[in-house]
Design goal:
By secondary structure, the protein is an all-alpha fold. The protein is built from 2 helices and no strands.
Length: 51
């Protein structure tokens, strides 16, 4: 796929990117007990329990 074909696809990608950046910057209290290299993985593990 070359580029984003629809506005909805672009919107999903942009929101997902913003969410990951927020996780990395610590705006959510997820994965606070995880080792420094595994915080994003721990965040997703905690999110899976909630969803």
């Amino acid at each position: 796929m070359r580029g984003l074909k629809r506005d909805r696809t672009a919107s999903v990608v942009i929101r997902g990117h913003a969410f990951i950046q927020s996780l990395r910057r610590g705006h959510y209290e997820l994965g606070v007990d995880a080792r420094p290299g595994l915080t994003i993985a721990a965040d997703f593990d905690e999110l899976a329990l909630v969803v």
